[in-house]
């Protein structure tokens, strides 16, 4: 007989989450998760499914009928989009300008696609002319791009130019909107995006577990017309259509509590107004940006493609990024993150997302960084940083 382990009552630390995700969860979302469970085919839950889909359409700014929360994290929604739209032998055009473009490429390969790349350095957006040239050379069946690259802090400008270049060559367009949905301008229909996926744990301030996905009629026609089924049974959208479509037929047990949470998070977006929410994120992130720039630091991307929801703050000379991250966690219970891939060691990734995009959190980040830099001997103007943040927040 194996003895039962002696595990203490759960008591996680109270952190202020200002990294690349998850973000602080709104109290109303936490409350929604504590409400009674019902069955995943219960009439009351079916009604909640309809409401969640309608709210998702608002946040994506789309009329797409096929708009659902995928049971899983943002990577599950990503794999659902790519794994259903990329058939064996299809050519998938993926970007090279960040960590999550590389993940797109990896998923397309696993789906049986032939992956080709369109290049841009880490920290820069894709050039629509380069996308058009790549489409002319490779004739991709599907083109994927990252709207808000979490690894570099870059927002892709002029999305319609990318989608036009791809559509001119007959390719479907898949957008990674994990770090943009609910935080920066996103217009799926107006920008002519065929499929977009996202995660709930960033600008929506919701725990991971039910992840937004939307596909237009062109994309769903390809899904439903595949010659062989998608390689993942769990994420096969032709099967999930039976549950999230009109039939509401059993496919799997949905993460009911996570759907509760997502529904409430989306209600908060609707109450605030999507354009007002985009503006709040920009205002709060602008105050953070003003503070770190006044200290003598900069952000990795240029202003033209700065991503307000994820700020890639340059690491000052003379300090180790890991030491700073450890310091603010230990002294302030504040979470920020290191750079990824090509930017590892060069930037801190500071989120300004959802319920975390508030004046008190922005002030805390700037003050904690100033203290950490001072304690670790970095040559920065901490007082100027704090003054600039206060002024920006007035």
Task: Please name the defining characteristics of this protein.
single chain; 394 residues; alpha/beta; Aspartate Aminotransferase, domain 2; Aspartate Aminotransferase, domain 1; 2 domains; seven-stranded mixed β-sheet; three-stranded antiparallel β-sheet; 13 helices; 14 strands; 42% helix
Give a description of the structure.
The longest helix has 21 residues, at 274-294. This protein folds into two domains: 27-271, 3-Layer(aba) Sandwich (Aspartate Aminotransferase, domain 2), CATH 3.40.640.10; 274-393, Aspartate Aminotransferase, domain 1, CATH 3.90.1150. Strand 6 (148-149) and strand 7 (154-155) form a beta hairpin. The chain has 13 helices and 14 strands. A seven-stranded mixed sheet has the order 2-10-9-8-5-3-4, with helices on both faces. It has helices at residues 27-33, 43-60, 74-85, 99-110, 128-138, 159-168, 217-224, 237-244, 256-272, 274-294, 321-332, 359-376, 382-393; strands spanning 16-17, 66-72, 91-95, 114-118, 142-146, 148-149, 154-155, 172-176, 195-197, 209-215, 310-314, 334-335, 337-338, 347-351. With 394 residues, it is of the alpha/beta class.
Helix content: 40-55%
Cα radius of gyration in angstroms: 21 Å
Shape: globular
| Gap from first CA to last CA | 64 Å
The percentage of residues in β strands lies in 5-15%
Protein name: Pyridoxal-phosphate-dependent aminotransferase family protein
Cofactor: pyridoxal 5'-phosphate
Region (Disordered): 1-26
Family: Belongs to the class-V pyridoxal-phosphate-dependent aminotransferase family.
